[in-house]
């Protein structure tokens, strides 16, 4: 059974036909080649003008959680700038098409988040294209498992921090001068921030940093009328997992250890981003919204 956001359903039975299959793609991977296909809410997400006329910049918007969020934002009435790596053009074009089908504008700005110049240029181009930014979703991320710290390369450690932490800093810093009171920033952390896996030392550390960055910055910006929050996904079926995010043998049982007993789909994350982006969450700042299948968090 697939998810439909307005239909009463047993959450343990949703997507019960779906079984993650062992597979490997080179980084960053494509949704187009994921088996089974992830549910981005293409067929089901219905908007109700919660983001009418809003201007959103989303990183990692080509696939997975970022793509599901981009589709939902557009159907809620927002125009969207999509950031992603050049090799993800195929996925990005599909999402841009879905945004246009929703009657909104989509602008694609490929580039590498590890590059500070790209991050600043991305913001400039978003401001130009949209006429400002009032929703910033820092979502692009890198996750490569490593079983032994002595073999964790300096390059990987650096890349994981650049992609997950530095890019968030560079983009937020560049975007802030363009963000008016009422604007919202949403960062993507992870269950890994609280219960880190022994094979994700670098990644989990970046996700704890993102959580803390969110809570510190939220206090700084709340008096200025800008709310900063985070979403912390649990195990979600996206290209991240099959591009060495997990060892192959873990993929088949991906998500089964959660209280709901299954992995989640990107479509189940999008409503959390919509809530935090919209005025519905006007009294929520510095919060981490866990969407993780029921695993306890601090
Ligand atoms: P995904 O692979 O669909 O999205 C990650 C995106 O990050 C890629 O599409 C890519 O565009 C972008 N990216 C990676 N390196 C980049 C670089 N150097 N330059 C530009 N863009 C780059 O996977 P996803 O699972 O949807 O990931 C989205 C976010 O969710 C990430 O921050 C991830 O850490 C987080 N998250 C995912 C899970 C999960 O189980 N899938 C769990 C917790 C947190
Ligand atoms: Mg991608």
Automatic annotation (TrEMBL):
Residues 16-25 have a biased composition (Basic and acidic residues). The keyword Amino-acid biosynthesis does not apply. SUPFAM superfamilies: NAD(P)-binding Rossmann-fold domains. Gene3D superfamilies: NAD(P)-binding Rossmann-like Domain. Transmembrane segments: none annotated. Keywords: Oxidoreductase. Residues 1-41 are annotated as: Disordered. InterPro entries: NAD(P)-bd_dom_sf (IPR036291), Sc_DH/Rdtase_CS (IPR020904), SDR_fam (IPR002347). PROSITE patterns: ADH_SHORT. The keyword Hydrolase does not apply. Belongs to the short-chain dehydrogenases/reductases (SDR) family. This is Dehydrogenase. It comes from Microbacterium murale. The lineage of its organism: Bacteria, Bacillati, Actinomycetota, Actinomycetes, Micrococcales.
């Amino acid at each position: 059974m697939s998810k439909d956001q307005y239909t009463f359903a047993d959450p343990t039975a949703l997507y019960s036909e779906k079984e993650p299959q062992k597979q490997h793609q080179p980084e960053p991977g494509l949704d187009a080649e994921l088996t089974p296909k992830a549910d981005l809410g293409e067929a089901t997400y219905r908007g109700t003008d919660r983001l009418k006329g809003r201007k959103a910049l989303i990183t990692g918007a080509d696939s997975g959680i970022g793509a599901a969020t981009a589709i939902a934002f557009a159907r809620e009435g927002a125009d969207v700038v999509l950031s992603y790596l050049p090799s993800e053009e195929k996925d990005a074009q599909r999402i841009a098409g879905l945004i246009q089908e929703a009657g909104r504008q989509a602008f694609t700005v490929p580039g590498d988040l590890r590059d500070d110049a790209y991050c600043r240029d991305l913001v400039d181009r978003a401001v130009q294209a949209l006429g400002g930014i009032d929703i910033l979703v820092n979502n692009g991320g890198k996750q490569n498992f490593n079983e032994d710290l002595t073999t964790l390369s300096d390059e990987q450690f650096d890349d994981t921090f650049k992609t997950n932490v530095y890019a968030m800093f560079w983009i937020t810093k560049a975007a802030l001068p363009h963000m008016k009171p009422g604007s919202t920033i949403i960062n993507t952390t992870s269950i890994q921030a609280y219960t880190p896996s022994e094979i994700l030392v670098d990644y989990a550390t970046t996700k704890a940093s993102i959580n803390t960055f969110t809570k510190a910055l939220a206090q700084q910006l709340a008096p200025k009328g800008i709310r900063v929050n985070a979403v912390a996904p649990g195990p979600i079926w996206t290209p991240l997992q099959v591009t060495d995010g997990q060892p192959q043998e873990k993929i088949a049982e991906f998500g089964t250890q959660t209280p709901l007993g299954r992995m989640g789909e990107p479509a189940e994350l999008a409503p959390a981003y919509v809530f935090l982006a919209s005025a519905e969450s006007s009294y929520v700042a510095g919060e981490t919204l866990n969407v993780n299948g029921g695993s306890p968090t601090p």
